[in-house]
Amino acid sequence: MAELQLSVLDQSVSLAGSSEDAAIRDTLDLAQHCERLGYARFWVSEHHGLPTIVGSAPEMLMAAIAARTTRIRIGSAGVMLPHYSALKVAEQFRVLEALAPGRIDLGVGRAPGSDMRTARALNPNAHAAADEFPQQVRDLQAWTSLPAHLGITAHPLGPHAPQLWVLGSSNYGAQLAAHFGLPYAYAYFFVDGQGAEEALALYRRLYRPSERHPVPQATVCVWALVADTHDEATHHALGRERWRLDRARGVLGPLQPSDAIAARGYTTEEWPTIEAMRRKAFVGTAEQVGAQMRALARELQLDEVVINTWAHDPAVRRHSYALLAREFALSH
């Protein structure tokens, strides 16, 4: 098996003691850092109305990243398509392709990325919009690959076009991507891997070759944190553990510092959930996490894995990506 290609998903996570706008600027700095390390792609997410994940406009972030990088592919993971017109999204990403020729990935998802009240503020027909997702993907595929569709041209045209990806965490997205002959990214981190093997097998079995993608192309996104020692990595992962516990009971806020969480500790009732999380976590040294990723890639027949990392200290996050880049000998 050839060495894995690694990519990055960043969600512009707000940090306790800092400001939300600082999280956006940190995403730009991280993109440049990951390009220097040799990562293949840098994707940014779309969420609305959340005090933790504050990247609400991936296309704008992508434009800023394009201006600061030269090689790394830049993408959305993803645009929540039911909020928008497929034509407008196609135009936005054709503009991005003009700014960074041959480097733009257009990942789209069906989920609202928000609560339904916020979704209705984005699109008054949000309650029914998700039903139109297959038609929207078909239109978007046409407007990003053909000069014209439905008698309308999505400008600007050029020698390159955005690469469309379908994102998901269920069999639905896998089947849709297979039907249209599109690359597929599974949100492994979102469901702790549950259903990934079945979804990817379904995607490959049902795949209908398209002109641009004659063979299936799949990846998964995992949450991982690497440090010099396993104990350090476990400590730095406390922030996300605490966030997941709080989210499950409807409490959301910025990512808390690990030292404060360690000082408070976990309750007796919380420990079973924490232990279950840790059994599935990609947390440890570069050698340990590298072995987990290689095993996962063999199991799911992947040649690329996307990595999402949260840490309250930006330096910890950058060091994690640097250690993994060294472990996988990413080319600079």
Summed up:
The protein is an alpha/beta fold and 332 residues long.
Any idea what the radius of gyration is? Answer: 19 Å
How many β-strands, per DSSP?
A: 9
CATH topology descriptor: TIM Barrel
Amount of beta strand:
15-25%
* Low-pLDDT windows of residues: none
- Helices and strands, in order, run as EHEHEHEHHHEHEHEHHHHEHEH
Q: Give the helix proportion (percent range).
A: 40-55%
CATH superfamily: Luciferase-like domain
Give the CA-based shape.
Answer: globular
Instruction: State the major sheet.
Output: 8 strands, parallel, barrel
SSE class: alpha/beta
Question: Mind explaining what this structure looks like?
Answer:
The protein has 332 residues and is of the alpha/beta class. It has one domain (5-224, 303-327): TIM Barrel. The chain is 45% helix and 15% strand. It is built from 14 helices and 9 strands. It has helices at 20-37, 58-68, 86-99, 116-122, 126-129, 133-143, 171-180, 196-206, 230-236, 238-248, 258-264, 271-280, 286-300, 314-327, and strands at residues 5-10, 41-44, 73-80, 104-109, 163-168, 184-186, 218-226, 282-284, 304-308. Strand 1, helix 1 and strand 2 (41-44) form a beta-alpha-beta unit.
